[in-house]
Amino acid sequence: MKILTSLLAATALTAAATAPAMAEKWDMPMAYSASNFHSATGAEFAKCVTTGTGGEVEIVTHPSGSLFKGADIKRAIQTGQAPIGERLLSGHQNENALFGFDSIPFLATSFDDSAKLWEAARPSIENLLAEQNLTLLYAVPWPPQGLYFKDEVNSVADMEGIKFRSYNNATSRLAELTGMLPVTIEAAEISQAFATGVADSMVSSGSTGYDRKVWESLNYFYEVDAWLPRNYVMVNSDIWAGVSDANKNVIKGCAELAEYAGNWRAKEYTGFTLQGLRDGGMTVGPASEQMTNELKEIGVTMTNEWLEAAGDEGKAIVDAFNSSQ
Ligand code: PCA
C-alpha cells in the first residue's frame, strides 16, 4: 500500500512537473461558420492531433472569424500571433497570381478534376508559402461555385449594375466582366450584407449560402459549376521547426486524414446544402444555355489573363493538369 501510494505520488509529481512544461496549446483561427464542413474537418483534425500527441500539442479551433477575421488569418500566422490556422487559398491572389490557380472559371469543375489540379499546383503553392514562413498541412475544396441572385437572371445582360459580393480577385474580375459592381465581403458577414442590400448577388458554393441562410434575402441559385476553390491549413514554420519529430509525424498523419475526410465531407455537403437552399424557398437549378455560353466566354478571357499573370509556373500547372486528363 505504501509503495502504491508513493508510486502514485511520484507519478502525480512527474505529471505535474513535466506536463505543463511540455504541453503547448495552439489556437487555430478559421474563417467559416462553425457548422460548415471545413470547420468540422478542422475540429476533427484538432482532436486527432491533441489525442495523437498525448496532449503535447493541443489544438483549439476558433471558427467563423471569431479569433481573427478571414482576411487577417494568414498574417497572424506568419507573424506568430497564432501558430496555426485555416484560410481560403485564393484569398492571397492579390499577393501572387499563382494562389488563384483554383479560381479559373471552367478549368476544373468537378471534385475529381479539382483533385488533379491540386496535385499539379501543390509543389508551387508549398514553395510560395514556405517563402512566407508558412508550412502547408492540408487543403480541402469547397463545392462547385454557382451564382446567387435576388431576381431571376437568364443572360449576362440581365446582370448589368447588380451589386455583387466578391471573395477574391477572380470573383471581383468576374463581376467586372459581367457588368456587375463588386464589393468584397467575408463569408462571416454576408447574411447582413444581403439583408441590408449592400449586395444582391454572389458566386459561391451551395454550402456557404446554406451556412448563412441566404434564402432570407436571395431567391435564385444557378449551378454554374465554375470552379472549386480550396481552403488550406498552414502552420508558422518557426513553430513547426520546434515540434518534435514524433509529433510532426502525428500532425502530418492527421493532416492527411483531414484532407481525405474533408474531400468526402465536401461531396456530401454539396447535395445536402443545395436541398437546404430549396427547402429555404430558393429556386435551384442550372443556368440557361445563353448564360452558360456567355459565362464560358468570360472564362476564356479570365484564363488568358491568369496565364499571363502567373507566367511560366502557372502555365506549367495548367499543362500538368491538362495532361493528367
Ligand atoms: N465559400 C467561400 C469561398 C468559396 C465558397 O464556396 C465564400 O463564399 O467566401
TrEMBL record:
Protein name per UniProt: Neu5Ac-binding protein
| GO cellular component annotations of the record | periplasmic space
Key word Signal present: yes
The domain of life is Bacteria
UniProt xrefs under Gene3D superfamilies: Bacterial extracellular solute-binding protein, family 7
Q: Which organism is it from?
A: Ruegeria atlantica
Q: Where is the signal peptide?
A: 1-23
Spell out the Pfam families in the cross-references.
Answer: DctP
Keywords from UniProt, A to Z, are: Periplasm, Signal
The upper taxonomy is: Bacteria, Pseudomonadati, Pseudomonadota, Alphaproteobacteria, Rhodobacterales
Annotated GO biological processes are:
transmembrane transport
Q: Does the keyword Signal apply?
A: yes
Which gene name belongs to this protein? siaP_1
Q: Where in the cell is it found?
A: Periplasm
- Main localisation: periplasm
